[in-house]
Automatic annotation (TrEMBL):
UniProt lineage: Eukaryota, Metazoa, Spiralia, Lophotrochozoa, Mollusca
SUPFAM superfamilies registered for this protein in UniProt: Restriction endonuclease-like
Domain of life from the UniProt record: Eukaryota
GO biological process, one term: DNA repair
Protein name per the record: YqaJ viral recombinase domain-containing protein
Source organism of the structure: Mytilus coruscus (Sea mussel)
Length: 298
């Protein structure tokens, strides 16, 4: 793999204020990594070869029955996802939190096997942007965040994992990655990465909170790092697991999609409004900001 830049040079901030801010932050993170005994892991500057970093553990492209080791966006990964009624990324629409029409579209696709509607050009462009720039977020996590704030942990790429109901895959969840200790034998934390085109996330968005809850559930970890990458800044939030919220969501999903002959919804579930207002939004606000990271200047 060629050198990965933590932030593209064309997007670096040039003002004197932010230049001094970046220098101070860089020094602070460097000192923290030294105090943690991780000085050699900390990347000073903007680019490095990610594959050469000891904290980065990519998935190998191999045949395996362990779904956590199946590379995301591979043909087998897509096949596994198609066995489920819900995925982590579709849970918001599947519940009806995105409105009745999108809930019905999801039902038609997974129950009636209607081909999915073509995405709007702008929506597809946003998704492509996120996929392209996700590697920058991983580089920031591995080279800056882990040595300074989460010493002793390595970043492992993840495949997917299923939640079963009546011996069938009901939900398939694909976490971007996990942080592990003890040579990868102990899962400590999930990792979810978003690379928005237009606006930095100042808190965890409502539409992604339940996806993160599902990821913590399948990994059986108590927390997850939500990383929002933009060319000029990376924000990191720590989300805590909430089993009660997850079980409420699972009950609603099973009532819609878990029957032998599911019925197409004609109205939103009665509990959805309360779930969004009282549960999801509250947990978004509970997620606390760990730190903001800017690309260091060279």
């Amino acid at each position: 793999m060629s050198a990965i830049e933590i932030g593209p040079p064309s997007c670096r901030l040039k003002t004197v204020f932010f230049w001094h801010y970046d220098i101070t932050l860089e020094k602070l993170l460097s000192v923290l990594s030294s105090l943690n005994g991780c000085s050699s892991m900390y990347i000073r500057g903007n680019h490095f070869k990610l594959d050469d970093h000891p904290n980065f553990k990519p998935l190998a492209d191999i045949e395996t029955d362990d779904t956590r080791l199946v590379k995301q966006r591979s043909s087998k990964w897509f096949e596994i996802r198609q066995t489920a009624k819900v995925t982590g990324s579709s849970i918001y629409a599947a519940l009806g939190l995105d409105g009745l029409q999108k809930m019905q579209d999801h039902f038609d696709q997974v129950v009636c096997h209607v081909p999915p509607k073509q995405r709007l050009t702008e929506v597809q462009a946003f998704l492509d942007y996120g996929k392209k720039h996700e590697i920058y977020a991983v580089a920031t996590l591995v080279g800056k965040i882990l040595p300074s704030l989460y010493p002793g942990l390595d970043y492992y790429e993840e495949g997917c994992k299923a939640i079963q109901y009546e011996e069938q895959n009901f939900m398939v969840v694909s976490t971007d990655g996990s942080l592990r200790s003890e040579n990868g034998t102990n899962d400590i934390c999930g990792v979810e990465i978003k690379c928005p085109v237009k606006q930095m996330h100042n808190e965890v968005p409502v539409r992604y909170l339940l996806q993160c809850m599902c990821e913590m559930e399948v990994l059986q970890v108590d927390k997850l790092l939500y990383i929002c990458w933009r060319p000029d800044i990376t924000s990191v939030f720590e989300i805590r697991r909430n089993d009660d919220l997850f079980l409420k969501v699972l009950d609603i999903l099973l009532s819609i999609y878990g029957n032998e002959k599911p019925k197409r919804p004609t109205k939103l579930p009665e509990s959805i409004g309360q779930l969004r207002a009282a549960e999801v939004q509250m947990n978004c606000k509970k997620a606390f900001s760990v730190a903001n990271f800017r690309p260091s200047q060279t």
